[in-house]
Amino acid sequence: MEAILYVSHGSRVPAARREAARFVEQCKAAIDIPIQELCFVELAEPDIATGVDRCAAQGATRVIVIPLLLLSAGHAKQDIPAALKAAKQRHPSLEIVCGAPFGVHDAMIDIIIDRIGEQPAPLDHESMVLLIGRGSSDPDTKRDIAAIARRLQEKTSVPHVDVCFLAAIRPTLDEGFKRAQASIYRRVFIVPYLLFTGVLMKTVERKLQAMPVSDQQWHLCSYLGYHPRLVTLIQQQVQALSAAKKGA
Fold first, then answer.
1. Do residues 132 and 194 both lie within one domain?
2. pTM score, whole prediction
3. pLDDT of res. 5
4. Dist CA 153 CA 184 (whole Å)
5. What is the DSSP string of the chain?
6. Does 245 score more than 90 pLDDT?
């Protein structure tokens, strides 16, 4: 019997955990697999080990692990595989297969465009976008955010998309804001490339509130959130991993 184990990043902020739980309920309704559980990499319970245990206790013989992560960095490359390896030692007869983070995908660009479209101002030739990533010491993070920025610019024809990061790598959030302030663009659309609310989103909000008054218009878009487009990506990933088993 197959099971799905959704692995969210985790947060100390209760609202973030509730957002993940609500999203998993949407996935459960869209995917016809009897066992579906949610767990977290860190900062919340249940952890990955407990998530696997819960799947096994319900009779799962094969667990499809779906990382609810935006990009492939330390959690996807190290933490999740290590936790799954330990779980496999406790459940040697259980088959565990792991999917990939959402990554650089056209659906992610469409979500950004949706969030920008929620703002009252137009994204036009007088506009720029400041794309804010979480940040990681993994070099793939900077590469992937740069690729997303290029695709966003191509898809919207906005004159300029700049990037900055909240941690670990440059340009920093302060540097990103300073470059936007010094730019020629009348409107700056700030897009936090984050999956859920929490401390990092509050950091962006505080930074914007501290900005000096100027003729520039600054528009803070919502973080990406557990957008309905992500359900489709997960459906496709589950179908591919299930088909791989059937074709083996």
1. yes
2. 0.90
3. 97
4. 17
5. -EEEEEEE---SSHHHHHHHHHHHHHHHHHS--SEEEEEESSSSSSBHHHHHHHHHHTT-SEEEEEEE-SS-SHIIIIIHHHHHHHHHHH-TT-EEEE-----S-HHHHHHHHHHHHTSSS--STTEEEEEEE---SSHHHHHHHHHHHHHHHHHH--SEEEEEESSSSSSBHHHHHHHHHTSS-SEEEEEEE-SS-SHHHHHHHHHHHTSPP-SSEEEEPPP--S-HHHHHHHHHHHHHHHHHHHT-
6. no
CA distance 133 to 200: 10
Is the pLDDT higher at 74 or at 39?
39
Task: Provide the token pair at 230.
Answer: 């992500």
pLDDT band at 74 (very low <50, low <70, confident <90, very high): low
Tokens standing for 58?
């319900």
> How many structural domains does the chain have?
2
Q: Which residues pair with 37 in a beta bridge?
A: 5
CA 198 to chain centre: 13
Residue 136's CATH number: 3.40.50.1400
Residue 6 Ramachandran class (φ > 0 left, ψ -120 to 50 alpha, else beta): beta
Pull the structure tokens for residue 186. Answer: 């009348």
CB burial readout 49-65, b (16+ within 10 A) else e: eebbbbbbeeebebbbb
- Domain containing residue 64: 2-102+227-246
> Tokens in use for 231?
């359900």
